[in-house]
C-alpha cells in the first residue's frame, strides 16, 4: 500500500466517522454551512498532518478541539468585520406555521442568548457528542465547570424556549 | 429524597453525565415525585429540537466534495513539504561547500606557516653550516700560515715555538 492510498484511506475513514457531527457543530457555531465546511476541511487537514503522532483513541477530541478553536477564531474575526451589520436576535420572529424552519431559528436564537461558556459547552455536547471530560480539555476548564455550564445552559435553554412558545 | 438535588441534576441526567449511583437515585426519586417528574418531562421539547437539529447529516455528494478538497490540499501541502526538503538539501550542500572551503583555507594557512618555519630553520641551518665552513676555512688558513711558518723559519724554529 503506497503512501497516497494510505492517506486517502485515512481521509475517507475520518470523513465517514466524524464529518457529520463536526459539520453539525460548526454549522451551529457559524450558522453558515459554507464556513462550516471550510473549517471542517481545515480541521481534517490538521489532524491528517499529525495522524501518526496522535493517540488513535484521542483523534475525535483532538479533531473537535482543532475545529472548535478554528471556528471561534474565525467567528471572532467575522464578528469584528461584521460589527456594523450585526444581527439583532430579538428581531427573529417565531411563526408556528413554519414549524421545522422556526424550530431551528428558535433554537439558534435561544442558544445565542446563553452565556458564551454555556453555549460552547452545549454545542460541543450535543453537536459534537463529546463527554464532559473531553469538553473540559477543549475549553481549557475543569470537568466540574463544564458540568455546571451544561446543566445551567440546558436549564436556561429549556426555560427560554418554553417562555417564547408560551408567549405566542 | 432531596428535590433540589434532583432538579439540579436532571440536565446532567439527560446529558448522560451522572454516575450509575446518581442515575439510580434520580430514577427512584422521579418515580415517587410528580413535581420532579413534570420538570424532567418539560425538557422533552427542547431535547427534541436539539436532536432534530444535531442529527442532520451531510449528503454523499457533500462528503465526496469534502474528501476531494481535503485530498487536493493535502497533496499540494505534501509537494510544498517536498520542495522544502529539497531546499534543505541545497542549503546543506551549500553549508558543506563553505565548510570545505574554510577547512582548505585554514589548512593552507597552516601549511604555509609550516613551510615558512621550515625555510627559516633551513636558513639558520644553512647559516650555521656556513659559520662552521668559515671556521674550518679559518683553521685551514691557520694551518696554512703554520705551514708557511715552517717553510719560512724551518722545522726546528717552528718546534721551539
Q: What this model shows, in words?
A:
- The complex is a heterodimer of chains A (168) and B (161).
- Chain A is globular.
- The relative contact order of chain A is 0.10.
- With 168 residues, chain A is an all-alpha fold.
- Chain A has helices at 3-30, 33-49, 59-81, 99-113, 116-126, 132-139, 143-167.
- The model of chain A has no long low-confidence stretch (mean pLDDT 80).
- Chain A has two domains: 1-85, Orthogonal Bundle (Rna Polymerase Sigma Factor, Chain: A), CATH 1.10.1740; 88-168, Winged helix-like DNA-binding domain superfamily/Winged helix DNA-binding domain (Arc Repressor Mutant, subunit A).
- Chain A has seven helices and no strands.
- In chain A, helix 1 runs antiparallel to helix 2 (33-49) and helix 1 (3-30) packs across helix 3 (59-81).
- Chain B is mostly helical.
- In chain B, helix 1 crosses helix 2 and helix 2 packs across helix 3.
- The interface between A and B is large, with 43 and 32 residues.
In short:
With 168 residues, chain A is mainly α. Chain A contains 7 helices and no strands. In chain A, helix 1 (3-30) crosses helix 3 and helix 2 (33-49) packs across helix 3 (59-81).
Proportion of residues in helical segments of chain B: over 70%
Unreliable residue stretches of chain A: none
Spatial gap, N to C terminus of chain A: 62 Å
What is the helical fraction of chain A, as a range of percent?
over 70%
| Cα gyration radius of chain B (Å) | 55 Å
Number of strands of chain B: 0
**Strand content bin of chain B:** under 5%
Q: Give the structural class of chain B.
A: mainly alpha
Q: Supply the number of structural domains of chain A.
A: 2
**Count the helices of chain A. How many?**
7
CATH first level of the largest domain in chain A: Mainly Alpha
Average of per-residue pLDDT values of chain B: 79
Content-based structural category of chain A: mainly alpha
Outline of chain A, from the CA principal axes?
A: globular
Following the backbone from N to C, one meets helices and strands of chain A in this order, namely HHHHHHH
CATH topology of the largest domain in chain A, by name, is: Rna Polymerase Sigma Factor, Chain: A
Largest sheet of chain A: none
The poorly predicted ranges of chain B are none
